[in-house]
Design brief:
Blueprint: H1 2-23, H2 29-49, H3 55-78, H4 84-102
Length: 105
């Protein structure tokens, strides 16, 4: 269950990171409120996950899910580069996250 909570925290991490783009520097009220809410949910879920998972592993997975997810959403939503080198690098981060999951009790 802790891994599922951590995964959801990582998804929220993607949500608030993308939300920052829509807040336009926190000048738009509704996107700012949504972004701050998702940001809070992300940190609260991470806090729940670290009760049972090692801190270093949980934090690395949380930020990794956020980084990979946000980069992919940047490609899909904002037309950011999908160069082979960038996709390979994201794949390596994902491989590292899987490795951490497989080696953590």
């Amino acid at each position: 269950m802790s891994w599922l909570v951590l995964f959801l925290a990582g998804i929220c991490e993607c949500g608030w990171a993308v939300g920052l783009k829509y807040t336009q520097g926190f000048t738009r009220l509704v996107p700012s409120i949504v972004t701050l809410t998702v940001m809070t949910a992300s940190v609260v879920l991470l806090g729940w996950a670290v009760r049972r998972l090692p801190l270093g592993t949980a934090y690395a997975v949380w930020t990794g899910i956020g980084a990979v997810g946000t980069a992919l959403l940047g490609i899909l939503l904002f037309g950011e580069s999908a160069s082979p080198g960038r996709l390979l690098s994201l794949g390596l981060v994902l491989a590292g996250l899987i490795g951490l999951k497989l080696t953590t009790r």
